[in-house]
């Protein structure tokens, strides 16, 4: 049985000794003369009783997974209310993000809004301005879709160089969920959009309101007014009871605690689409309405928070890829900083505007690697290098950094966020 | 008009629309009647804004600077404020009215919002100290960076460039590490994820 007071069996202790011994895990799994006591001796869990079914009406992850949590970076923002935290993508697998550790971004905090207190207004250039209750929304025909929500600022701290040491911090402003809801088109049709209507303005019930303008074409295409994610109600911090889902577009437009949809003939140019979520180029002019999130990928393991601890031999290189313009069709992986590439294996065919999981089964010889991944989407777009992006945009765009990431994996198995020539 | 026929929801009353639809557009649509002077604005600002944004809208600590930074947008570290960056005054009015002060939003009268916006203009050296902002004078004000924005042009400048068949072998001769995150050392301390 493992003893948690023994430093070699805690995570940190294990990692340190594991790295020092260059593969303690392999040794631990091997038989000694008398056999592995985890096998030859009867363990308590094989003899005594576990918890009853009434112990945990709604469960949390087992304590040994306590490092798989959201993290914030204090110096990034002036306070923790209008701020960001990060999904632990380095420790997850598959594609669906557990809601409890899916990143948060608020502008005036995560508010508590009961279904009974919830109202949704549609007004502006419509035949009949309408008010819906939460119950009303549940009576409209429903749809289910899996989409990624990526903050426009994901990887934004990396524009000027390699800064934060971990995939969670460099790429963790993202989650991918299965949403249930009503198409925005259905709700707009209920109110009746007038012919002059060209844009919709969407705002939340929180103090920041987070108002954004969306062209009517997108609003009538695939935008969803969602009330369930991954099978259950939205989490408070993700917009309970109702949020907007804007497939492929920057996370800021996924308005949470959605309270109002206004139809107009012009965009509103709100704070969140002028002061923020505009991308300054080298000459000082700025792009506005940069809605789509371009194809992007990252190796989640190995990575700085997920070093190699098992020594040479078989190594699973894995990561995530996604595109706001379509489905992921291919991911290439390089272990030599982009000198040569191998096509990775997609765990499942790419889905439109949703995250794909990729694997490259590698035989690691114990030497240094410069690990990179490169996503390709169904439009033929190939994820660019940071140098390619900087050539077009300069260093001050803040948002929309979809560059190829490099991890320097050292002989020890530790990994570091680096830039390469 | 699109035709809906499920009959769900109920018509919104004018009072309800008025209570929630407070947005203001660059063309002035949505602006309520009212006015406020730079002088009034200085007093209101000192009372409800200056503890975070500074007496002269120059910002305290890490809180946003609302004034200054003129001509810095093409610099290495641009200072983006209402004066140096924001394209439309309507956005300032709308955002202050709806979402400020931080922690006590929607507590300002229309006249107070006009006054605060007038003071922000003054702090950016865009109006004289006797200026009065009202729904009638509002559209006379043009912010310096109104022309500084272009609509997303990635379709022209990037998509074709980044949609070429990628190199698979012998893509470059050498690879050098040029930057390391560990040198900066600004990442929060976390437990590394060991194989369990």
Short structural summary:
The complex is a heterodimer of chains A (421) and B (196). Chain A has 421 residues and is an alpha+beta fold. Chain A contains eight helices and 23 strands.
Instruction: Let me know the average pLDDT of chain B.
Output: 94
Uncertain segments of chain B: none
Tally of DSSP helical segments of chain A: 8
Chain pair with largest interface: A-B, 119 and 84 residues
Q: Fraction of residues of chain A in helices?
A: 10-25%
Q: What form of chain A results from the Cα inertia axes?
A: globular
Shape of chain B: extended
Please give the count of helices of chain B. 7
What structural category characterises the helix and strand content of chain B? alpha+beta
Number of strand segments of chain B: 5
Strand content of chain A: 25-35%
State the name of the first-level CATH class of the largest domain in chain A.
Answer: Alpha Beta
Low-confidence blocks of residues of chain A: 1-26
The chain-level structural class of chain A is alpha+beta
Number of spatially distinct domains of chain A: 3
Q: What letter string, H or E per element, gives the SSE order of chain B? A: EHEHHHHEEHEH
**Count of extended strands of chain A:** 23
How would a textbook summarize the main sheet of chain B?
A: 2 strands, antiparallel
- The quaternary state of the protein chains shown equals heterodimer
The CATH superfamily name of the largest domain in chain A is Oxidoreductase, molybdopterin-binding domain
What does this structure look like?
The complex is a heterodimer of chains A (421) and B (196). The longest helix of chain A is centred in the N-terminal third of the chain and has 11 residues, at 11-21. Chain A is built from eight helices and 23 strands. Residues 1-26 of chain A have low confidence and may be disordered. Chain A is of the alpha+beta class and 421 residues long. In chain A, the strands form six sheets. Chain A has a five-stranded mixed β-sheet with strand order 4-3-12-7-8. Chain A folds into three domains: 7-46, no CATH class; 86-287, Oxidoreductase, molybdopterin-binding domain (Sulfite Oxidase, Chain A, domain 2), CATH 3.90.420.10; 296-418, Immunoglobulin-like (Sandwich). The mean pLDDT of chain B is 94. A two-stranded antiparallel ribbon of chain B has the order 2-3. Chain B has helices at 14-20, 38-48, 50-53, 89-99, 110-123, 154-157, 181-184, and strands spanning 10-11, 35-37, 132-134, 149-151, 177-180. Chain B is 28% helix and 8% strand. The chains are: A alpha+beta (421), B alpha+beta (196). At the A-B interface, helix 1, strand 3, strand 4, helix 6 and strand 12 of A face strand 1, helix 1, helix 4, strand 4 and strand 5 of B. Strand 23 of chain A pairs antiparallel with strand 5 (177-180) of chain B.
């Amino acid at each position: 049985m493992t003893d948690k007071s023994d430093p070699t069996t805690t995570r940190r202790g294990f990692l340190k000794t594991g790295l020092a011994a260059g593969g303690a895990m392999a040794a631990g799994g091997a038989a000694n003369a008398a056999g592995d006591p985890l096998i030859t001796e009867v363990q308590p869990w094989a003899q005594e009783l576990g918890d009853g079914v009434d112990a945990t009406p709604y469960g949390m992850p087992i304590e040994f997974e306590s490092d798989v949590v959201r993290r914030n970076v204090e110096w990034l923002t002036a306070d923790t209310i209008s701020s960001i935290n990060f999904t632990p993508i380095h420790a997850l697998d598959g594609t669906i993000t557990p809601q409890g550790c899916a990143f948060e971004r608020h502008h005036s905090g995560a508010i508590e809004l009961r279904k009974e207190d919830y109202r949704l207004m549609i007004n502006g250039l419509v035949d009949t301005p309408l008010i819906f209750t939460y119950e009303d929304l549940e009576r409209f025909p429903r749809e289910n879709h899996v989409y990624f929500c990526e903050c426009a600022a994901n990887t934004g701290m990396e524009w000027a160089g390699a800064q934060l040491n971990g995939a969670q911090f460099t790429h963790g402003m993202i989650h991918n969920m299965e949403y249930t809801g009503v198409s925005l088109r259905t709700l707009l049709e209920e109110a009746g959009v007038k012919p002059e209507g060209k844009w919709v303005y969407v705002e939340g019930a929180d103090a920041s309101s987070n108002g954004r303008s969306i062209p009517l074409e997108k609003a009538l295409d695939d935008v969803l007014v969602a009330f369930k994610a991954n099978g259950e109600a939205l989490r408070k911090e993700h917009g309970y009871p109702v949020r907007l889902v804007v497939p492929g577009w920057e996370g800021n437009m996924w308005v949470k605690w959605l309270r109002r949809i206004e139809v107009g003939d012009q965009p509103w140019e709100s704070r969140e689409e002028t002061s923020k979520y505009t991308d300054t180029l080298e000459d000082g002019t700025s792009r506005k309405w940069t809605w789509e999130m371009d194809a992007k990928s990252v190796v989640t393991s190995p990575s700085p928070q997920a070093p190699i601890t098992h020594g040479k031999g078989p190594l699973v290189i894995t990561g995530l890829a996604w595109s706001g313009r379509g489905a992921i069709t291919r991911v290439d992986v390089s272990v030599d900083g982009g000198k040569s590439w191998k096509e990775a294996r997609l765990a499942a065919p790419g889905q439109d505007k949703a995250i794909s999981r990729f694997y490259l089964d590698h035989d690691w010889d114990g030497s240094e690697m410069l690990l990179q991944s490169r996503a390709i989407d169904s439009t033929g777009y190939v994820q660019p290098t940071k140098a390619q992006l900087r050539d077009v945009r300069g260093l001050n765009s803040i948002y929309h950094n979809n560059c190829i990431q490099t991890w320097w994996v050292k002989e020890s198995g530790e990994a570091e966020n680096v830039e390469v020539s | 008009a699109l035709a809906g026929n499920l009959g769900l929801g109920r018509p919104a009353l004018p009072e309800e629309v008025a209570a929630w639809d407070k947005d203001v557009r660059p063309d002035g649509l949505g602006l309520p009647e009212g006015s406020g002077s730079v002088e009034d604005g200085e007093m209101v600002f000192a009372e409800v804004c200056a503890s975070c944004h500074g007496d002269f809208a120059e910002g305290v600590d890490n809180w946003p600077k609302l004034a200054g930074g003129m001509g810095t947008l093409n610099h290495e570290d641009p200072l983006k404020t209402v004066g140096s960056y924001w394209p439309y005054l309507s956005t300032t009015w709308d955002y202050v009215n709806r979402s400020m002060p931080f922690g006590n939003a929607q507590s300002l009268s229309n006249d107070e919002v006009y006054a605060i916006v007038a003071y922000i203009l003054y702090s950016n050296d865009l109006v004289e100290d006797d200026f009065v902002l009202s729904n009638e004078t509002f559209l006379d004000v043009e912010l310096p960076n109104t022309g500084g924005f272009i609509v997303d042009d990635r379709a022209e400048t990037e998509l074709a460039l980044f949609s070429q068949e990628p190199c698979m072998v012998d893509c470059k001769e050498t690879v050098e590490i040029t930057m390391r995150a560990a040198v900066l050392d600004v990442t929060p301390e976390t437990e590394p994820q060991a194989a369990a």
